[in-house]
Amino acid sequence: MFKKILIANRGEIACRVIKTARKMGIATVAVYSDADKDALHVQMADEAVHIGPAPSAQSYLVIDRIVEACRRTGAEAVHPGYGFLSEKREFQEALAAAGIAFIGPDAHAIFAMGDKIESKKLAKAAGVSSVPGFLGVIKDADEAVSIAREIGYPVMIKASAGGGGKGMRLARTDTEAREGFASATNEARSSFADDRVFIEKYIENPRHIEIQVLGDSHGHVIYLGERECSIQRRHQKVIEEAPSPFLTAAVRAAMGEQAVALAKAVNYKSAGTVEFIVDTERNFYFLEMNTRLQVEHPVTELVTGLDLVEWMIRIAAGEQLTLRQQDVRIRGWALEARVYAEDPFRNFMPSIGRLTRYLPPEESANVRVDTGVYEGGEISMYYDPMIAKLCTFAPVRDLAISHMRRALDEYFIRGLNHNIPFLAALMAHPRFVRGDLTTNFIAEEYPDGFHAEDLPVEDPRLLVGVAAFIHRRHVEREATLSGQMPGHEVKVGSDWVVRFGDQNYPYTIRDIEGGYALEMGGPTVTVLSDWEIGQPFFRGVVNDDNDHQVVVQMDRHGIGYRLFHAGSRADVVVLTPRAAELAALMPVKAPPDMSRFLLSPMPGLLVSLAVEEGQEIKAGEVLAVVEAMKMENILRAERDGTVASIHARPGESLSVDQKIVEFA
Ligand code: ADP
To answer: For a designed S-S bond to 417, which of 53, 90, 343, 535 qualifies (C-beta 3.0 to 4.6 A apart)?
Structure first.
């Protein structure tokens, strides 16, 4: 076995690999860029080597720097994680030349599976069921149309070098096939420097289901069941689960056997994933093979009880896979939700910045959190804005979903925007709960994007109960403060009003064992909790005939409280009946008119300004370019006007909603 390994990655996956290595008694070396000198993976590893500036093209993607880091530290093997160099054949070859083991498959398998056209040919030859299509390179738009007609619309035009959902176009007509050919070709050229595209049948309402395989260098290959990853946004996975609620035992076995056949065809060793799409009749078709550890591998680990990273390391060290197919048992149900620093209410715009407060849910037999961040750390604009992968495990799917809802309520993140409201809405969506999934789920259920109205509607009595409890504890404390002005002492009082939105909820409160009882019309609401002032979480039981175990996050907010529950945010104020009466008469403050300003839609760097003071502009004209997450965003004028003043200069870092230009 290796004594020391290097992890050529960052973030949660680097941390995850380090955990297993430590468990196996193997020393670890982290690598890091300028932006990551304080990162969690650097803190966790036994040693760390600086490999360059923040942009990954100058650090995590530089093969020579990684090989050099191995030489300097004496690391005998490298785990590449996912992304970065994990599927770069040149990396594998450079390591081999330096006598360093690669914890992954051999270069020939990476190469054979790295190209969609070539891998589909190979799959066909191995007897794997493939999407009907034309496995040749399309020359021009005319050929695209004639082949699309031959296959029969709808068709998918795809970049052979594609990945990450890039270079893919759906076409339902000749015109769309022409346009799709042009745009897929362009995108493939700019993203992969390889403009070959091919065409296959578009499978309507498909589900994405993939098979985990594990092979060793002695020719043993097994499959570890499937993962369903149909909940995708723009072809990127958001929620994954194992097993799939859709497969029958027979289909699972057929998919597993084909995946093994494909892996054997390329002498696959290590962990790999064979991706399929499955139509509504449970016909399955090979999509591609990922020759690395997948982001969503934890759900397989939870239902099989295996440590995939441990097996990858053992196999790379030449050990035999002692596990036989009949030893693999799938037990229970696991879900994974990808927690991202992005604003779901603003079209999932990345949200970078410092995690001013970060309390992940506690890990247990039911909850697993894979993360690479910590309180006070930063989510930078240079890398994927993932905060964590949150997994839950239970004997059955419904229970895994309810654990997930609770774990999302327990996830406390402040300082930047995150997608927990969106994840909570998905977990409460009746169609998700039924397991009625397709890869179009998000596009169909949230056609105009995600809005606060898409959140599950909660019984207001629940939040009123929690607000009343929290408020009572505050007034009780205030009433005991010494030095109060005679005649003006704070009275605990029993009649109050919770103001929530523009609604008033009057109630009468009294002490009961372990909490309070509220009369507010209808059945008495009891709220039991041991919550104390200062705690960020309110955990308790609210009962209005039924028991509701609740976890509510709370922040002080002005004179009131900001409560977070089930993805929703509610600002509440608790007032005396007289104050509530007066509050109802207060004029509502109109929000300021910001239409006179060009605001930065995201945190980023102001790359250039195209206008100057006094300039006349026309609607649609370019005003500025803001770079964020390695992407340039062009900001255009929404209407004709004149530039009155400039508020930011090129080179400046912008926060979200920062003023850039003011119009007259
Ligand atoms: P990438 O390598 O870019 O991730 P994939 O080939 O793995 O591309 O496809 C990504 C997703 O695109 C799939 O999970 C599925 O949702 C959708 N997709 C791909 N091919 C088809 C097809 N022929 N029909 C329907 N959907 C498809």
So the answer is: 343
